[in-house]
Amino acid sequence: MIYLDGSYEIEKDHEKAMNLLIRAAEKGNEEAFILVENSMDRITTQQKESVAALFLKREGR
Fold first, then answer.
1. CA 7 to CA 30: how far, in whole Å?
2. Using an 8 Å Cβ cutoff, are 30 and 21 in contact?
3. Taking the domains of the chain in order of start, what are their residue ranges?
4. Angle at 11 between CA 10 and CA 12, to 5 degrees
């Protein structure tokens, strides 16, 4: 269901989509990594932890 004042379902769907992108980026998908990198302002705190680990992995740390 979509609410006029900002749908919870839309946010939840976005969170699911970001989780899929993060997983794809972790598996080496460069396009997914770029999309995650460009969406840093829209991810949850839990996702930020995963993305931080992803960035460290890419830097070889």
1. 30
2. no
3. 8-58
4. 90
